[in-house]
Automatic annotation (TrEMBL):
Catalysis: reaction(s): [protein]-dithiol + NAD(+) = [protein]-disulfide + NADH + H(+); [protein]-dithiol + NADP(+) = [protein]-disulfide + NADPH + H(+)
Entry keyword set: NAD, Oxidoreductase, Repeat
Pfam families xrefs: Thioredoxin_8
UniProt source species: Aureococcus anophagefferens (Harmful bloom alga)
Name of the featured protein: protein-disulfide reductase
The Fibronectin type-III domain, residue ranges: 11-100
Entry's EC annotation: 1.8.1.8
InterPro entries found in the cross-reference section: FN3_dom, FN3_sf, Ig-like_fold, Nucleoredoxin-like, Thioredoxin-like_fold
Length: 316
C-alpha cells in the first residue's frame, strides 16, 4: 500500500528559489499529483545532514527566515501522501551567500484590475528597473521567467498592463543605474481576475466612449473606474434615449463608457434589467448576479459598499 501511494506522489518537477535576502529565502515548487502535503528540507552548503522544515505544507511555497547572510544554503522538496509517507525528493535549489548583497525592499501591489497591476516601492535611488513574472512560470523555473516591465522608471509607482486574466503575477525592482544592487525580493503575487463571461453577453463585445472610440468588453467590464468608499467600481451607461442625437447629447455629459446606441444588446439589457424609469443604478456582482436593483439615493459609505462586496462573495 505504501509503495503504491509513493508511486502516485512523484517528486515536484521543479524546485526553485523564488527570492532571497540577507536573512531569508523562499523556495517554490510545482504541484505533485496525489500529494496531501509537502516536506521541505534545507542544509547549509557543505553540510551532509538535512534539516526538516516541515512535512505538512499545503502550499507550494515556503520561506525560511533567520539565515546567516555569510553562508550559502540548499533546499529540496518531496510530496507526502495521505498516509504520511514521504516520497522521493526533488532536485536541489541553491541560495548563494548574501553577505555583500545590496537590495531594496520588495515592491507592494497597490491596485489590480482586469488587465493590469500597479506596484509601488521605496528605497534606493531612481531611475528604477521593474520586472514581472507569472507565478506558474516561476514554479516551473525561477531562473528564467522574469520579464522586463520597464527599464527606467523615474518615480516609485508603475503600472503593468496587458496581463492575462486568471494568472498571478509577481514583481521585483532595483535601481537601474546603481552598480552592486541585486533585484529586490518579489512582491506578493497579484491575481488578475478572469473575464466575466456574462459581461460580453449582457453588454455586447464592445463599449463606446463619447468620441465614438470602441473598447472591447474583455478581461474587465472595460467601463469607467470610479471609487466608492475607497473601493474600485466599473460603471457603464445603459441609455434609455430614443434617438442617436439624444444619446450623443446626454453621453457628452458623462465620463463613463456606454453600450452603443445601435447595439441590439442595449435594448436587450434594458429589458433584462426591467428599466422603466430613470435615474437607475444597478449593482452587479462579478458573476452577473444583481446585488441591488436600484442604488440611487443610497449612501456610498464603507459599510454599504463592503456589504455589497460580501454579498457578491455569497456572505450576508
Amino acid at each position: 500500500m505504501a509503495s503504491q501511494a509513493l508511486a502516485a506522489c512523484a517528486p515536484p518537477a521543479a524546485c526553485s528559489i523564488y527570492d532571497a535576502d540577507a536573512a531569508s529565502a523562499c523556495v517554490m515548487w510545482s504541484p505533485s499529483a496525489g500529494a496531501a502535503s509537502y516536506a521541505v528540507e534545507m542544509r547549509a552548503a557543505g553540510d551532509e545532514a538535512w534539516t526538516t522544515l516541515s512535512k505538512t505544507l499545503k502550499a507550494c511555497k515556503c520561506r525560511k527566515k533567520g539565515l546567516d547572510a555569510s553562508r550559502a544554503y540548499e533546499f529540496r522538496v518531496a510530496a507526502v501522501d495521505a498516509a504520511g509517507a514521504v516520497g522521493e525528493f526533488s532536485g536541489i535549489a541553491k541560495v548563494a551567500s548574501r553577505a555583500d548583497v545590496a537590495q531594496q525592499p520588495a515592491p507592494v501591489v497597490s491596485a489590480v484590475d482586469g488587465e493590469s497591476v500597479t506596484v509601488q516601492w521605496s528605497g534606493g535611488e531612481g531611475p528604477y528597473a521593474l520586472q514581472y513574472a507569472a507565478e506558474e512560470d516561476l514554479r516551473a523555473d525561477a531562473t528564467t521567467p522574469w520579464r522586463l516591465a520597464a527599464a527606467s522608471v523615474n518615480g516609485t509607482v508603475a503600472k503593468k498592463k496587458n496581463l492575462d486574466g486568471g494568472k498571478r503575477y509577481a514583481f521585483r525592482v532595483k535601481p537601474a543605474d546603481a552598480s552592486g544592487y541585486e533585484w529586490s525580493r518579489a512582491s506578493e503575487t497579484a491575481l488578475i481576475p478572469r473575464a466575466a463571461p456574462f459581461m460580453a453577453r449582457c453588454f455586447g463585445t464592445d463599449l463606446v466612449n463619447k468620441s465614438g472610440g470602441k473598447r472591447t468588453t474583455g478581461p474587465s467590464l472595460a467601463g469607467k473606474i470610479v471609487a466608492a468608499a475607497g473601493r474600485p467600481f466599473e460603471v457603464v451607461w445603459l441609455s434609455c434615449e430614443r434617438d442617436p442625437e439624444a444619446f450623443s447629447s446626454t453621453f457628452a455629459q458623462f465620463p463613463f463608457l456606454a453600450v452603443p446606441f445601435d447595439n441590439d444588446e442595449r435594448e436587450r439589457a434594458l429589458g433584462n434589467f426591467k428599466v422603466s424609469g430613470i435615474p437607475r443604478l444597478v449593482i452587479l456582482g462579478p458573476d452577473g448576479r444583481e446585488l441591488v436593483n436600484n442604488a440611487v439615493g443610497m449612501s456610498l459609505s464603507i459599510a454599504t459598499v463592503d456589504g455589497w462586496m460580501r454579498q457578491a462573495k455569497g456572505h450576508k
